[in-house]
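Sequence in, structure out. Go.
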Amino acid sequence: MSVAKLRIYRGDAEGGQEVEYDVPIEEGMVVLDAIHFVQANYDGDIAVRWNCKAAKCGSCSAEINGMPKLTCKTRLDTLPLDKPITVHPLKTFPIMKDLVTDVSWNYEVRKKIPPFKYAKDTDWKMQQVDVERSQEFRKCIECYLCQDVCHVLRNHNKKNEFFGPRMMIKIAELEMHPLDIEDRKEMLREAAGVGYCNITKCCTEVCPEEIHITDNAIIPLKERVADTYFDPLQWVMKKIKGS
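Output:
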């Protein structure tokens, strides 16, 4: 039986280090299985967050060989086994213990986004194409891999100035709903900091639900902000109307 070497980060906010474990490989085994083997046979106190093991709850996010992934979806046979497999917690968020991080910042940001708003006399009839445009973003499982890989949050720690890709999806879901009448463009420009994104598409690359975060959410939101605040024709029309 083949053996994989797992180097799992063990530690907390005060510091830590990688600890290496030998894990026998079975067919179809994923990284989360390997972590469970380590818990059962070596260190039962390894902290790891997981729930469904079906890539739908978003709980088991980690950095595998430096790349944000779901541990329950990453098969060992897709990784190079000629060198140790590293498993670290998400770098963007504060570490609590081992592979568990505190992602509560995301919940606080979500509270700042104005909810769905509709007119009192709304006729609840929509074209299917409009439904599908907004529906794509509802596939998000909130694994926060996109938040972790985003260089604005990860490398520059702009959490006070940029909401991150996950929240851009949330805003896009609302903004692109055909019956929503709330105006969030000022928030996008200021508090949400949509201008910080330079569309590298790294968030799209790591999304386990294959949501087109950059092309279908962030770029259209950027265009809406640009049309409203930076289009010279729009500026002239506002001056003419006195607004």
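Check: The mean pLDDT is 94. The chain is about 35% helix and 15% strand.
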